[in-house]
Amino acid sequence: MARLTAPLNALRAFEAAARHLSFTRAAEELCVTQAAISHQVKGLEERLGAALFRRSHRGLVLTDEGLALAPALWDAFGRIDTVLEGFEAGGVKQVLTVSAVGTFAVGALLKELPSFRAAHPFVDLRLLTNNNKVDLAAEGLDYSIRFGDGAWNGTEAEKIAAAPLAPLCAPSLLDLLREPADLARVSLLRSYRAQDWPAWFEAAGAPPIPARGPLFDSSLIMVQAAMLGEGVALAPVSMFRRELEAGHLVQPFAALADVGSYWLTRLKSKAPTAAMLSFRDWLLGS
């Protein structure tokens, strides 16, 4: 079957006219005459064998065929414009989309990002946060930084750092907590990982106490609640060094529970780009 083609100028004329719904404004944008836009669009319609516009009392309206063609051209010309803007800015940047669990993003990643950007100016980093439940494929992610055991179906996981958990609370609660059994006197804030508090009591060699405090889907928010005196949070100590050093948080007990680590994950089916490799090597220090 013969492949249908169309001149680039005609496609550009139609794209601008469809965006503005005006031949006049399209002509002004492309620095040509209105007659030239009309001529290009008419030629494109003849080549396609379909009308792309119809006139109404309010002006131009896209036909069904025009509505089918316009979005594809908006996307294509938009991508071309983005690349050209990169050349004008001194080089083409490669987009890198990374999703990170919020605790790691705030506790470890943000303060180091300036060094990454300085070392890799060609990377256009898009940083998203998640609550540890992500779909790499559906969300179009290059990488996701997650907390757990590193076993996620269809993904390649590389360990970033261990993240043992310990109870953290506001200084105002410290006098109440002399030994692990005293935790029965306060609210134990919970994450979606029900196994965390039992694991900590086991590590501390103490009988478990049921955690019946509020449930949070983010350790970052849970620790914020702890700082406000709402109870005791079980969280990775390494991610809250600044709050501990500033005296906003205290760690009443030394025992640590090793229930997971932070991992850099990507789809096994996704071939790493130059931007991905640069980020991976920077983050893992290799």
By secondary-structure content and strand pairing, the structural class works out as: alpha/beta
Residue-averaged pLDDT, rounded?
Answer: 91
State the shape: elongated
Summarize the amount of helix as a percent range.
Answer: 25-40%
Number of extended strands: 9
CATH level-two architecture of the largest domain: 3-Layer(aba) Sandwich
**Continuous helix count:** 10
* Alpha carbon gyration radius: 28 Å
CATH homologous superfamily heading of the largest domain: Periplasmic binding protein-like II
Unreliable stretches (pLDDT < 50, length at least 5) are: none
What order do the strands of the largest sheet run in, or round the barrel if closed? 4-3-5-9-6
CATH class descriptor of the largest domain: Alpha Beta
Q: Which sequence of SSEs, written as H and E, runs from N to C?
A: HHHEEHEHHEEEEHHEHEH
Integer count of domains: 3
Percentage of β-strand residues: 15-25%
Task: Summarize the biggest pleated sheet.
Answer: 5 strands, mixed
Named CATH topology of the largest domain: D-Maltodextrin-Binding Protein, domain 2
User: Alpha-carbon distance between the termini?
Assistant: 51 Å
